[in-house]
Every structure is written in C-alpha cells, then in structure tokens.
Design goal:
- About 1% of the residues have low confidence.
- A hairpin with a 4-residue loop joins strand 7 and strand 8.
- 13% of the residues lie in helices and 37% in strands.
- It starts with a strand and ends with a strand.
- The radius of gyration is 24 Å and the shape is globular.
C-alpha cells in the first residue's frame, strides 16, 4: 500500500506515535507499505516553526532524515500535474497546503493518512453548475473538499458508482447529444458506452459489478437495457420508458417505475428481462420505490389516499392479480410523506415530509412494517428551510440531504448537521461512493 502522510501524521509518527490510531500505526509499521511526505507538508511545517506556531523536538531536517532512515519515508515533490489538479477542487477549504495535499492525493491516487486513515470513502457525489454545463463532483466529507470529476463544457449528470467504487457511469451531453459514459476513477478519461438520449432515470450497477442497467429514450430504441462495463453485450430488456431504476440488493431483479404520463406504476422483472410483472395499477401515482436490504420488500410513495404517503409491498406480490396482496400504508399524515431511503442495516427508513409546514427529514423504525397501525416517525431535522431527499451512507453512520439548493450532512441520529456544498441542482439524487 502507498499512502500520503499529512503534516500531523508525520509529526506524530516522528515524535508522538501514540497519537496515531491503531489502524494508522499499523499501516506505518508494515514494511511492505510506502509512506510519502509531500514537500508541501514540509514547507508548511517549516513556516509554522519559523513563525513560532509550532515547537519541534528536533530541527525539521533532522526529523526528516530520521524518518527517511527509520520509517522509509519518501519525499513527494510538487509536480506540474499536482498544480493543475487544483483546478478540479472546489473552494470549500481555503488552506493552500491542504488544497495542494488533496490535489496530490487525487493526481497520484494516494489515500491520505492523518491521525486516522482517510481513504476514498466516505465520499459523496452530486452535480452542480450553470444550465448546460453541469459537472459531477466528488466530495470528501471528512475534509469538505470536492473534486470535479468530469471537467467538460457539456452537461454531465446522473452518476452511479460501481460496487467497488472504482468506476462511475453517468449521462453526458459532451458530444452534442446525451449518452451514457463510463469514467475510471484512477485513470480518468470518459468513454461512451451507449447511445441513450436524455433519460430521467439514473443508470444502476448490478451488485456484482458485471452489468449496468440504463434507459434509452431515442426513437425506436425506447426501453430499459443492460450492458457490460466494457461496452459489450448491450441487451434490450423491455420497451418500457422508465423514470427510475433500482437493482435489487441480491442482484436477481430490476425494479422500475413507468407509465408516468398520467400516473406512475411500479414494475419488477428478473435481471435478464424475463418475468416482467406490474406491481401496482391504481390509476394514481406510485413512485420513488426503494428496495429493502434483504430484497423482499419495496417501500414507495403514493397518492392512492389523495395525499402522498409511504406504503410497503412484498415484492413477490402484485396488486393486479392476487387478492389480499395489497400494499400496506406506513404513514397517515394528510400532507406529503415521500422520497424514502432504507438504512443499510434495514432498521430504519428516512424520508421527507412537510407535516411541520416545511420539508424536514424524518425516520421510522422498520419493525413497524409488520404492524397494522401507521408507523410513528421521529424528526431528524428542524430547520426553517426545506430539507429533502435523504440518502444513507453505505456504513449507515451518515445521512446526506438537499436543503433548498445546498448539500448537507448529518449523523444517523439527526445531529451535527453541516453544510457540504452550495448551489447544487435541487432535483437530483445524492450518490455515495462505495
């Protein structure tokens, strides 16, 4: 493993190894690992020492010589590519040394070692920019720094990460039309995978990373497709015009909503396009479905009782052909309850509601799905503006959400809410990198 020490971790390694976390200390001690120290960090330490803001036990040169000998620390020079990589960073953090360190980390694909390991996760993806020039950004939530992944004058949007977090697919208008592209996170450079037009549904990866499902709205090609990440085996699964796609966590099925010209209905089919079934048919809107982590249930929002409320249905049921297999109502609010997201452990469902006069984030206990009465929900945000579209982090520790046109983050209990990015597009799904 190759890692980049920041100034703190270098000092702790040299003078106070007990300040490092057990994980960070283990990485530093492993002989097979290479520890890099940026010249930028060395520069920062020298300046702070000369200004009297930092007291060192030994002269900085002596510390460096000692760490190069004892812990095999390698100096990382500042190269032109590192400087140019600064163009990809948003200005959420103004410290020039931190910015240059992040740029080097991005350019060299080196995770940063601080008191604890700062790997490529937790990172959040969103798109922002002026109309016609949306870019996709990757936000390191621990440092508040965002990297522009796409850097193209066209419109880039609707990202989806591979299960290993190494590849991203997205829609781009970079060649005069909107098509599906794939980006390698380490090598960079986007490659067109398929001709699609400008669909509203995000592409999705199969849990094993072997397939990408996407939608096309091109004339005579409307439908849902799946394709290999390298562009092979492009297969049309159905001619439905899907407004949203979800791959089941067990990898066996695809869920989508369609027929949204007058209303929306939910459909499910096997991952190869067989056994297509319509789950709902009520002449109203059934929308924004989300799988349970065990792939047995689907929670969705519906206007079947006039107001948008949350419902749950067993995936092996459908309301069109089985009596007694109707969806169960989860909320009863006479306002808006919608945009649910299931926690990774299956224990809670976060959602948006305007029951308090403006949109806030609430969560309900998933155990209530087996009880007949509507679920009781707890409030997670309490702010005078609209907070919407919650998304759980893969480890279940965080919930990201959009507040008006800004991206915010809070812990799973609703505390420590903080601003991550301003002026993003409101009508989008935030996407975590695995």
């Amino acid at each position: 493993m190759k890692v980049l020490l920041d100034s703190h971790s270098f000092l702790w390694l040299a003078e106070s190894p007990d300040q490092l976390s057990p994980e960070a200390a283990s990485i530093c001690q492993a002989l097979e690992n290479t520890l890099f120290l940026s010249v930028a960090s060395l520069w920062e330490l020298q300046i702070k020492s000369q200004l009297g803001k930092l007291r060192l036990n030994l002269p900085l040169k002596t510390l460096l010589d000692e760490q190069q000998r004892v812990n095999r620390v390698v100096l990382l020079p500042i190269a032109p590519d590192h400087v140019f990589a600064l163009d990809k960073l948003e200005s959420h953090h103004r410290d020039p040394f931190d910015r240059l360190l992040i740029a080097q980390s991005v350019a060299e694909t080196l995770p940063i070692l601080s008191r604890v390991m700062i790997p490529h996760a937790p990172e959040l993806t969103y798109y922002a920019g002026s109309s016609g020039n949306y870019e996709i950004y990757l936000m390191d939530i621990s440092r508040g720094l965002a990297v522009n992944l796409t850097h193209n004058p066209g419109e880039d949007s609707r990202p989806a990460w591979s299960p290993d977090g190494q590849q991203m697919v997205f829609y781009s208008h970079r060649d005069g039309r909107t098509d599906l592209y794939r980006l390698d996170a380490s090598a960079g450079g986007a490659r067109r995978l398929a001709l699609t037009g400008a669909p509203s549904a995000y592409p999705v990866w199969s849990p094993d990373g072997q397939w990408i499902a996407y939608t096309s709205i091109l004339s005579r090609q409307v439908g849902i497709y799946r394709i290999r990440p390298d562009g092979r085996d492009n297969q049309r699964l159905t001619d439905h015009r899907a407004a949203l796609l979800r791959w089941s966590p067990d990898g066996h099925r695809l869920l989508f909503m369609s027929d949204c010209d007058n209303n929306c209905d939910l459909y499910v089919m096997d991952a190869n396009g067989s056994n297509l079934r319509q789950l709902t048919r009520n002449g109203i809107i059934d929308a924004y479905p989300i799988w349970s982590p065990d792939s047995r249930r689907i929670v969705f929002m519906s206007t079947r009782d006039i107001f948008y409320e949350l419902y749950v249905i067993e995936v092996d049921c459908d309301e069109t052909g089985h009596s007694g297999c109707e969806a169960s109502r989860l909320t009863e609010n006479r306002d808006f309850d919608g945009f649910p997201d299931w926690s990774p452990d299956g224990g809670e469902i976060a959602f948006s509601t305007d029951r308090d006069g403006n949109f806030e984030i609430y969560a309900l206990d998933a155990d209530c799905l087996d009880r007949p009465a509507p679920c009781q929900a707890r409030r997670l945000t309490d702010r005078p503006v609209n907070d919407r579209d919650p998304v759980w982090s893969p480890d279940g520790r965080w919930i990201a959400f959009i507040s008006v046109f800004d991206v915010y983050l809070m812990n799973a209990q609703g505390g420590d809410a903080r601003l991550l990015s301003r002026s993003v597009l409101r009508d989008q799904y935030l996407v975590w990198r695995p």
